[in-house]
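Backbone geometry tokens:
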Amino acid sequence: MGSGCRRSIGNVRSFMENSIGDLSGSSSLASWIVAGTLAYYLWVRPSQQLKREQQEKAALTAASDQYRYVEK
């Protein structure tokens, strides 16, 4: 492994440690829980609901189309 590659790995590791911080403190853990909960309710859940609504709409459209081809 070259010195440039080791330096890159060290830089990535340093960046991750700085961005994550100390997870041993209870306040830090609580902030991660709050951030995760907010991310779920702001991004994950709405996208799941939108996907579900689109599937329901597609199913209703397919069921109500009287001219659709059905192989018998």
User: Anything to note?
Assistant: The mean pLDDT is 80. The longest helix spans residues 26-64. Residues 25-62 form one domain.
